[in-house]
Amino acid sequence: MEYILTAESLGKQYRHFKALDSFSIHVPKGSIYGFVGKNGAGKTTFIRLICGLQEPTSGSYTLYGAKNTDPGITKSRRRMGAVVETPSIYLDMTAEDNLKEQYRIIGMAVFGLYMKIMEYISTQQYFSRSPALHSMLSIYAMVIGFLTAAFVSLFVGTEYSDGTIRNKLIIGHSRAAIYFSNLITCSAAGLFMCLAYLLPAAAAGIPLCGMETADFRYIVSMFLCSFIMTLAFTSLCTLVGMLCQNKAVTAVVTILSVCLLFVASIYISARLSEPETYQEVTALAGDGSVTSTRDVPNPGYLRGTQRQIYEFLDGFLPTGQSVILTRGDQGSPFLLMSAYSAGITAAATGIGIFLFRKRDIK
Question: Where does the pLDDT of residue 207 fall: very low under 50, low under 70, confident under 90, or very high at 90 and above?
């Protein structure tokens, strides 16, 4: 049997501390191995040894048939890759340039395998040095729900604690008018927070990213969808705030609810992003290049009714819309998401007014 990696009684000792004690292993060609152990068991130490970062104090190992004491071990290491605790990349370089630099480091001037890797993992879309304009504009989408929840809980809670709502009722204001006035105020604050980020981001982003990257139709659609999504957040938080007369409780309930919905939406998005099939490598050439693959069904891929439900929730929930906006997918169904948000706003407002009319005010 051909072994890619072997170790015989391999050990590493730092003065009186044994980081690796008489470790032996035989890894056959084509197999997959994993190391499981407690902190300090020697997993990272073993990886460091076979990478040549450290020298063993006892025992030996072979890599692709070359013993650790042989000069040819350096050529064997060119056929392996390792990430030891922290990835060693150049943060000021693109992913493409980082890969090319690794080729230069290991002495491979021909990028044939590199191009196959690019085709295999389909990462060409991430190679741009400059961030896409839509990415700059959509960063705020993940926080607008929390900002809205915080503002509504403070504003409506103060209306209750200061006795403003009670006084308005005493002097003859209708409950519907009071509810609408608070909703309009909170909505205006939410829209102002959107504009406070979007306008400066657009003003700085268009010159930075270049006019050629600015899809103005997409930007306008994203702006409108963001505004209506913010109204949905505001209407839901106002519903909670107007029914709960305690400022602290309102803040906890609204912020915690937004947090839980975000967790659910991120999970839904991750499930929907699962590929239908995986490519399994079935053959490798001597230089490590992929020569044959096959498609393997992904058991985690959602199908049928279950996928339809997940897709509906992904676009229906305001937090799901936030995740979609953050992804910056220009094929996003902005019109449908806006309709969902408008429906949520109308439903939450109607339910809120109905329940507020029956609410006893302290």
Answer: low
